[in-house]
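Box 3.1 A note on notation
Throughout this textbook, protein chains are presented in two layers. The first layer is the amino acid sequence; the second is a token string describing backbone geometry. Keep the layers aligned when reading.
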Amino acid sequence: MTLPVRHRPGSLLERRFPGFGWGEPVAAEFDELFQRMTQLLEGTAAPGELAWSPAADMRETDDAYVIEADLPGIRRDDIDIEMSERGLRITGEYKEREREGVLRRSTRRTGRFEYQALLPADVRAEEVSATLHEGVLTVTVPKAQATKPRHIEITES
């Protein structure tokens, strides 16, 4: 996710439109709006530490919700899964590898990551299971008995 650049006093916004009244009061309003947007986009990340969200799919079967998250190169010990009443939270850290030489270009994401999902129905949180295979984390959250679809037979009267 790309975040907008923070406004700083004396920035292009103020220098570019000096005759149009785009001074500190208007810039301060934009700065406040930017801060609110940043807080919304950062979610629960610690101050100064942005968490990225891995690509993930959530599908529903008759018995469970299955979440598959792409976490290539991340070790099982660096992943934490928490389950609340209906909420699933996957967090962890992809640690930068030590390399020799000068890194000229990098497009791999590193650092803290976080994925959150609010499940649409009651689940059996105590029976959640997870596997990590070939860089894909699969979390299976069984549905509560009451939420499973049930076929209703129609009888003649």
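The chain has two domains: 12-42, 56-97+109-147. The chain has two helices and seven strands.
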